[in-house]
Amino acid sequence: MEDKNIIELFFKRSENAILETDKKYGKYCRKISYNILYDFNDAEECTNDTYLKLWENIPPNRPNYFLSYISKIIRNISLNLYDKKNTGKRGKGEVPILLDELSECIPSNVYTENEFIKNEDLKMLTKYLNEFLYTLNDKKRIIFIRRYFFAESIKDISYKTGIGENSIKSILFRQRKALKKYLEKEGVIV
């Protein structure tokens, strides 16, 4: 079913909206959540919470890019659960690794999404990050987003892109260095 038709079902308040969303994007949502939480039960819970959030927000919202809209919701819900479950301890998922990797190029006072939200400079940092991503070619942008937005492992990115794991690591290393340089050029203190 087309995304616009699924959104129309939400506007009609049809329970089929949830069924069709799950049919089309359920596996995708669970994978994003699992990449963050490394727990199938938690991923399922976050997916269900995502459907509830969609039900509560459509209407009035009418997302132009339904998949991006869902991705952002599932990612935020999963990160919030991750924070809740791992406060004060190191988790076993990709998130601690990602935060360590990004610590070299993101301002030191910004570690979790919740702190991003509190940060007054969020809009500028987001603007700079988006500008930086547009300087990358498609392949590099996809690798960066898969790693740092969807929290995919190096192994999964390698499998999906057909690029060797060592090459993925090198690409990400160079991208982090380039991001740091770009942010410093824009006046962001790293």
Word description of this protein:
- The protein has 190 residues and is mainly α.
- It folds into 2 domains: 84 residues, Rna Polymerase Sigma Factor, Chain: A (Orthogonal Bundle), CATH 1.10.1740; 91 residues, Orthogonal Bundle (Arc Repressor Mutant, subunit A), CATH 1.10.10.
- It is built from 10 helices and no strands.
- α1 crosses α2 and α2 packs across α3.
Q: Give a count of the beta strands, DSSP E runs of length 2 or more.
A: 0
- The CATH class of the largest domain is Mainly Alpha
Q: What's the helix-strand series?
A: HHHHHHHHHH
Shape: globular
- Count of domain modules: 2
CATH second-level architecture of the largest domain:
Orthogonal Bundle
Rg calculated over all Cα atoms? 18 Å
As residue ranges, the low-confidence spans are 110-118
Biggest beta sheet attributes: none
Structural class: mainly alpha
As a percent range, the share of helical residues equals: over 70%
The CATH topology annotation of the largest domain reads as: Arc Repressor Mutant, subunit A
Terminus-to-terminus distance: 45 Å
Q: Number of helical runs?
A: 10
Query: What portion of the residues fall into strands of 2 or more residues?
Result: under 5%
How would you state the average pLDDT, rounded?
85
